[in-house]
Amino acid sequence: MRRRNGSSEEKWPVFEIDALRLLVTVAGTGSFTQAAARLNYTQSAVSRRIATLEQEAGGPLFERLPRGVRLNPAGRALHRHAVDVLDRLSRAEQELAVLHTGDGGLLHVGAFSTANISLVPAALRAFRQARPAVEVIAVEGRSGTLTARLADGALDLAVVSDYPSGLPSADGVTTTPLCEDELLVALPRDHRLAGADVIDLGELRDEAWLQHAYGDRPTMLADACARAGFTPRKIIRIAEWTGKFGYVAAGLGVALIPSLAAWAVPDGLVLVRLTDPALRRTVHVALPAAPLPSALTLRDLLLDGGRPRSATPADRGTGAA
User: Fold this and answer.
1) Are strands 2-5 and 8-11 parallel, antiparallel or unpaired?
2) Where are the beta strands (DSSP E) in the chain?
3) Which residue ranges of the chain lie beneath pLDDT 70?
4) Quick check: 160 and 147 in contact, CB under 8 A?
5) In 10 A of CB 305, how many CB atoms?
6) Which of 15, 217, 238, 290 has its CA 20 to 30 A from that of 38?
7) Looking at the DSSP assignment, which residues form a beta bridge with residue 157?
8) In sequence order, which ranges of 228-317 are alpha helices (DSSP H)?
9) Mind listing the pLDDT tens digit for each residue in 18-51?
10) Is 62 helix (H, G, I), strand (E, B) or coil?
11) Residue 309: its pLDDT value, please?
12) Are 238 and 212 in contact (CB under 8 A)?
């Protein structure tokens, strides 16, 4: 490798891994002959390779003794770095081996917020028992952001949904349906309809709606209101579920709440079913084109034993207050 310095070039030595391994072996045995036997080389091949290494290093690395060799100061300096390099490579090989078998390494997992209430934690609890040596790095985000990070290689698995504006897609990302999640309406406990078993969306035409996205692209809420024959009189743009819960509890509006979020709804709210059968979202597990074995394990746990029982309005005291 050469670095330009003005009009001249300065040569930097580039040492091959095999040469560094040979240096360490010769230093450990104190003999070209013994190093050759240990590495299954000929003695002359070891001598030639060490001579080439010394040329690359800019001078001798060993003192030639009547019986064997030993490192000189330059050799000791290079030997110290060679041991460090070989140790790092060995640890890298071990980490890659367990990563590709699913028996260790890191697994980067993303999920949208309400999936992190019970769906994903239940699967991760089972995953910890199945793959105890794998360290999970969990992140939360919106489905579109998670899909993009999955395509970029920043995530190994993501739980995403088609709410509120459809299922995001990206090159190289495959999705598998995980479950359907009913969308319920959150009302304050003193709302006139809080005791109903089911509500037609048209009965809420005069309410303000709490929704993060509306009007700039199609959403399930906009489509459902159109089917019910009205446009919401007011949209209050609140992004986080905790904020929506607070506004609903204060009587400032109503909101569509996925049943996966039922476990986190505060006592001041009730969830009521709606008559529109299309008001439900589909939750998907998304993977890159070449998923890690540990990601496939987590996918299977999400699809099978890892997911919790379906949440229903009755689980959170919904319907009759």
Assistant:
1) antiparallel
2) 2-5, 8-11, 62-65, 68-71, 106-111, 135-140, 157-161, 173-188, 198-199, 208-210, 234-236, 255-258, 269-274, 280-288
3) 1-14, 94, 99, 102, 214-217, 305-321
4) yes
5) 11
6) 15
7) 109
8) 241-249, 293-303
9) 999 999 999 999 999 999 999 899 999 999 999 9
10) strand
11) 40
12) yes
Kindly state the helix (H) or strand (E) to which residue 131 belongs, with its residue range. none
Report pLDDT for 92.
75
| Rounded percentage of the chain residues whose pLDDT exceeds 70 | 88
What pLDDT score does 171 carry?
94
CA 257 from centroid of its chain's CA atoms: 25
pLDDT of residue 93: 78
Determine contact, residues 184/196, Cβ cutoff 8 Å: no
* Cβ neighbours around 198 below 10 Å, total: 11
In DSSP terms, 273 is beta-bridged to: 198
Residue 133 contacts residue 103 (beta carbons within 8 Å): yes
Helix 119-130, helix 293-303: angle, nearest 10? 130
Contact 168, 160 (CB under 8 A): yes
- Burial (CB count within 10 angstroms: exposed 0-12, middle 13-18, buried 19+), residue 41: middle
Q: Which two tokens stand for residue 206?
A: 């005069």
Cα–Cα distance, 147 to 171 (Å, whole number): 10
**The pTM of the whole model exceeds 0.85:** no
3-class secondary structure, 258: strand
Tokens linked to 317: 């005291």
Q: What is the pLDDT of residue 86?
A: 87
Query: Which position has the token pair 């110290």?
Result: 80
CA distances from 70 to 4, 20, 258 (A): 35, 15, 72
CA distance 198 to 194: 10
DSSP label at residue 192: T
* Beta strands at 255-258 and 157-161: parallel, antiparallel or unpaired: unpaired
Question: 57 and 74 in contact (C-beta within 8 Å)?
Answer: yes
Half-sphere exposure (Cβ direction) of 297: Cα atoms closer than 13 Å: 21
